[in-house]
Specification:
Elements lengths: L8 H8 L3 H8 L9 H14 L5 H8 L4 E6 L6 H16 L3 E6 L4 H11 L3 E4 L2 H4 L6 H6 L1 H14 L5 E5 L7 H15 L5 E4 L4 H14 L5 E4 L2 H13 L9 E3 L6 H4 L6 E3 L3 H12 L12 E3 L5
Parallel strand pairs: 1-2, 1-3, 4-5, 4-6, 6-7
Antiparallel strand pairs: 8-9
Helix pairs in contact: 1-2, 1-3, 5-14, 9-10, 11-12
């Protein structure tokens, strides 16, 4: 092997008793070369026995791009949705001999460009890009897309008899805040209930309690809180408990994009579960130019627990 410990074409050539060029022709399945089946089998067995892995940069130069797909996940997008999306994207790419590189948080353009120039990716994706770009949802989105999941949350509270609902928001702008709020307001309109009130629940516990108390004092008609995500829902539950408010008797609370901690809280958090694995698989096939076949998004569902 080479000094780096990496198996090279020369190692495979030595083990199989053929030239380095022959190994290259076999492993790259060069259609212009006539190589016997026995030689091909010997080379492939040697490569497998040695654990040979093609050099990504060399292959990128040969093919025009690497077999890497980059996914950018903005800060605040982490959750069950992103985890399941990444899982589906990763598994589907692997099935087609590609690798996923996930980049989290904000990065300066210069650093991003250096990464792209170095690995020459097959495609660059951004989680939730269609909604971050201001996409207006069509009826398909309301059937099983992001809008439908947002509507699930409001619809469940309405089914429980809550007409005056408030949206509890994070204390700093997340990439999908505007889209989430817009979908929730449209869901309320479609359900025929008043527009959602909205307020921010800050992170520090004491400050969060003050914010919730101030809001509820000004809006005594509100009987349910629909949180931006499970983290904001748990902040709200903590604030309500500190204020001596009973959940769900005095105030119902529902989260969004289920995280494990919600089930461990008292009262346990009712929330919306979103499985985006199929969306990840669809994105992988689209990036590779492969037909998506019968793949279709899986509708979200309500995880009913004690808080609502």
């Amino acid at each position: 092997m080479s000094r780096s410990g990496r198996v090279t074409l020369s190692d495979v050539a030595k083990a199989s008793g053929v030239s380095r060029a022959t190994v290259s022709f076999v492993l790259n399945d060069d259609p212009r070369q006539t190589i016997s089946a026995a030689t091909r089998e010997r080379v492939m067995e040697a490569a497998q026995d040695l654990g040979y892995v093609p050099h990504g940069i060399a292959r990128a130069l040969r093919e025009g791009s690497s077999r890497i797909v980059v996914l950018n996940v903005d800060r605040g997008m982490e959750g069950n949705f992103s985890r399941s999306y990444v899982r589906g994207l990763d598994e589907e790419l692997a099935e087609h001999d590609h690798i996923l590189l996930v980049r989290h948080g904000h990065a300066i353009p210069e650093a991003t460009q250096k990464v792209l120039d170095t690995i020459v990716p097959r495609a660059v994706l951004r989680l939730g890009e269609v909604y971050l770009a201001g996409h207006a949802p069509d009826e398909r989105d309301w059937e099983n897309g992001f809008a439908a999941n947002a509507a699930l949350q409001i619809g469940y509270l309405a089914e429980q008899g809550h007409a005056r609902i408030a949206m509890a928001l994070p204390d700093h702008e997340f990439p999908l805040t505007a889209a989430r709020l817009g979908f929730a307001q449209e869901a309320a309109r479609r359900l025929g209930i008043p527009p959602l009130e909205r307020f921010v629940v800050p992170g520090p516990r004491e400050v969060g309690a003050v914010a919730v108390e101030t809001f509820l004092t000004a809006h005594p008609e509100v009987t349910a809180l629909a949180a931006f995500d499970d983290d904001i829902a748990l902040r709200s539950l903590t604030a309500l408990r500190d204020l001596g408010r009973r959940v769900p008797e005095d105030m119902a609370v529902i989260g969004f994009d289920e995280i494990e901690h919600g089930s461990l809280f008292t009262p346990a958090l009712t929330t919306v579960h979103i499985d985006a694995e199929v969306l990840g698989r669809i994105a992988a096939r689209n990036a590779l130019g492969i037909d998506t076949g019968a793949l279709a998004p899986v509708p979200g569902w309500i995880v009913v627990r004690a808080s609502a």
